[in-house]
Structures are given as C-alpha cells and as structure tokens.
Amino acid sequence: QVQLVESGGGLVQAGGSLRLSCAASGRTFSTYAMGWFRQAPGNEREFVARISQSGGSTYYADSVKGRFTISRDNAKNTVYLQMNSLKPEDTAIYYCAGAVGGEYRYWGQGTQVTVSS
Fold first, then answer.
1. 36 CB contacts (<8 Å, ≥6 apart)?
2. Of the candidates 110, 113, 106, 109, which has an alpha carbon nearest to the alpha carbon of residue 34?
3. What's the alpha-carbon Rg for the chain, to the nearest Å?
4. What is the mean pLDDT of residues 95-107?
5. How deeply is 54 buried, as exposed, middle or buried, from its count of CB atoms within 10 A (0-12, 13-18, 19+)?
6. pLDDT digit string (tens) for 44-71?
C-alpha cells in the first residue's frame, strides 16, 4: 500500500508562484508514474500533469503548459509541481496520484491552492 501526502498549498496573488510537494511512503515509489490532478468547486476533477517512473517523460494539460513543471526525486520518494504565473482559474484542491499499469490507484488527501485576483 502506498500513502501519498501533499503539502505546499496556500493563498497567492495572481502572477505568483507555489511549489507543491507529494511525499510517498513505501519502497516502490520509483515504479509508479505520478500525476497531479485538481478539482475546483462545482467542477469535475481534471488532469494537470504526469511524470514517468524515471522522470524522463512529462505531460501537461494545455491549460497549464508553459506555467507548471512536474518533477520527481526518487531518492526522496517525492514528486513536485512548480506552479508559476498563477491565475485565479487555477484555484482548486490539488491531488497527487500514483499509477500502476496506467491506472491511478493511489491518491493523496489534497492541498488547497487559492489564487486571488
């Protein structure tokens, strides 16, 4: 079983930056592709970014491409989401997730990001 704990959320003005972290338990972190998702009030959860097991491959939603960067440190069992040029529409609860065989099986509890205009 893998446990994921997000941190780094908060309140920031538009144009600002935040760095989210997701710490994973267990010894098999490097075998999971990892993703970030977000859910705004009244909206469905949406994909934000994904990173391969080694970190060599990344993929982003069009809405965050060029502003957000996903990375991972397998030695620290941690995945990051650097968010720059934040917009009010980025306001949401952000979740990290671990994928096995292409399916996101493990989820964190989420961290709130609020961007004020």
1. 20, 22, 48, 49, 50, 70, 79, 81, 94, 95, 96, 97
2. 106
3. 13
4. 94
5. exposed
6. 999 999 999 999 999 999 999 999 999 9
